[in-house]
Amino acid sequence: MKNFDIIIAGAGSVGTPLAMFLSAQKMKVLVIEKKASPGQGQNKAAIGGIRATHSDGSKIKTCLKSLEIFSTWHEKEGDDIGWRQGGYLFPVYREKEEKTLKELLKVQKQFGLNIDWISPQKVKELVRGINEDGLIGATYSSGDGSASPLLSINAFYRKAVACGAQFNFHEIISGVSKGNGIFKVKTSKGEYESPVFINAAGAHAKELSLMLSVDIPVKPDCHEAGITEPVEEFVKPMVVDIREGEKSKNYYFYQNFEGQIIFCMTPDPQIWGYDRKSTSEFLPEISKRMLKILPGLSNIKVRRVWRGLYPMTPDGFPIVQFDAGGIEGYIIAAGMCGQGFMLGPGLGWTISNMLYGSKDKDDDSIANFRLNRDFSGQEKLK
Ligand SMILES: Cc1cc2nc3c(=O)[nH]c(=O)nc-3n(C[C@H](O)[C@H](O)[C@H](O)COP(=O)(O)OP(=O)(O)OC[C@H]3O[C@@H](n4cnc5c(N)ncnc54)[C@H](O)[C@@H]3O)c2cc1C
User: Fold this and answer.
1) Mean pLDDT across the stretch 258-266?
2) Angle between the N-to-C axes of helices 15-24 and 149-162, in degrees from 0 to 180, rounded to the nearest 10
3) Which residue among 42, 83, 148, 332 is best mutated to probe the pocket of ligand 1, counting the most ligand atoms within 8 A of its Cβ?
């Protein structure tokens, strides 16, 4: 079968749940993925954090939908995806961060988010052994959580296949063109046609978009992460320290459903490019910072570290654009930065409902993700 209603480039954090929602709408969907199975691009590099507590309305709305999908998946669909509702905690040790986070709190509350300022006492209950020296308090959003990126994507994949979606793995898209209202997608194995083509190629979205002569500002930005051996639960939320360090901006960690501590850091300066080899700076920098905030971590062994790519945009917001570059049926869903895992299901649901459901394409749930913005702003909690 060579003709489809929709062809999606990439079976990643975005493409896979998108295929699931589109095939559930009875669309004939083909996903083309160069790797061997779903989630083998940047999805598996994600540490699994899922939050709606952003500083922007479109991100908040999309992630609220994602949270609904992740948190009810086990009950509705039966697969355990490692969902854990531990919340997100931004501990505060300085007036500077207190001011920033309290300002944000106003915006977040306007969107009805369940987030509040909590006392040092409450912080200590949520993170046993947290350094109390100078602790002013924290913002805490109890509805946020985490899940396993690989368990989740495989669950979405199985559901997409059950709904009729076709996934072609080990197949690279090498050319896309449009003529007579139809996209022709050339791959390493053949040629396929559809009236709608969705670019969900993550860190490679720019190369793919240039095949249709539409340039997009997405470039790979390297981030490293690591995981420890499992231990008894003592950290409930994802802890995000937004202070800057010697060689880093923020860092964050949480304890997953299996008891392992998973951690990640934003390097300073940023490291651009596709190199995924671990650096010698990451572990010393992040362990120094994590031990300062939570000395009890010192006895836990790190099992492995890895490095992946944020598909970065200049302002930290994703790009979601219908009829991109004036090409009818060309949809971009890329540039997810450090939040593609948490945005994926919500975006998949929104895009499929805008295409074939009752949702208006001008709906404000993706308004701030349009390609024709000037990219000069900066997302405060990227
Ligand atoms: C260390 C680290 C930690 C992170 N932690 C989190 C987190 O806690 N929460 C969160 O929400 N996000 C997190 N992220 C970010 C998240 O991983 C990404 O934003 C997300 O995976 C991007 O999703 P995507 O679908 O756009 O790209 P991907 O998941 O990479 O999917 C794109 C797919 O397209 C395929 N592809 C590309 N070009 C072609 C082609 N020409 N032909 C065929 N296939 C092609 C790729 O192989 C890939 O599988 C983290 C990232 C890193 C690196």
Assistant:
1) 97
2) 30
3) 42
